[in-house]
Design a protein that fits this description.
About 60% of the residues lie in helices and about 20% in strands. The chain has 8 helices and 9 strands. It is of the alpha+beta class and about 325 residues long.
Amino acid sequence: MDYIEVSAKTIADAVAKGTEQLKADGKVVTDTKVLEQPSSGFLGIGRRDALVRLYFEEAPLTEKVAFAAEQAAANVQATAQTKVAEAKTAVSEASEFVQEKVADAKSTAVEVAEAAQQKFNEAADAAQAKIANVKAQAKDVAVDVKDTVADTLADAKETAEDAATTVAAAVKPQREPVSKEEQMVIADKGKQFLQDMFSKMGLSVQIEKMMTAEKITFQIHGEELGILIGKHGQTLDAIQYLTNLVANKEVAGHCHIVVDVENYRSRREETLVNLAKRLASKVKRNRQKISLEPMSAFERKIIHLTLQNEVHIVTDSEGEEPYRHVVIAYKR
């Protein structure tokens, strides 16, 4: 039986240290044996660590998958924390920029309003003088004053709107479309991530890559790949999510990646379409609503689209993730 020997200050520390080492290598501990008890010695002289022997064997595939997923989740969490910190910094800088622009816009608006008020006062004074001297021209003067004020206020409004537009354009994030070269980089990073993950899981697979302008599709081929799909594709969706995070990291644009196993997604879509039609017929007969089991947003969309033009049928999504589900009801 294979084993390793590990030393540490205490027996528990030695066992934990060896277990973690074996876990990283895809092994599990089957038995332990204490070879030497720890000793503190006398006044620190003659101190010795505990020595244990850990017997091990290859870990089950499910534990390898769980460990690989745990490592991937830790990497994703670290990436997410970095992105959150960067986002906070960007938001802070954008907030300061917006406040500065808004202050400038307010200052400009106040100056324009004061100028308009001054012109109004000057025009009014001129009108009063003209009315006092020449009553016959009072009507024309009043019209001129009104037009002058209207034009000035219109100019002030236009200036304020231009300032607001400038602020909005300055803080609005610009996302350039992904170039063909960037798409190739994303595809290579995504494929390498999948190859590394499957290698750690001990799976022998072939990865077929297909690219369009809108998305990149990785079709996985091999034997006994049900473990990559999971219940209703939940594991497959998680792998696809992780692949998108890793592949699109540090790239200016974004290209959506679809990960599929032996055309599972198309088969699942066909199953959901048939299920939706069958349950809709049942609702029409019984005139009682039916709640489906919780599904992902992608699968719920398939149900909604399948039945959107069905006579006397209405669909809705209820509940919160991860228990959000579709309800099919009768409509008169």
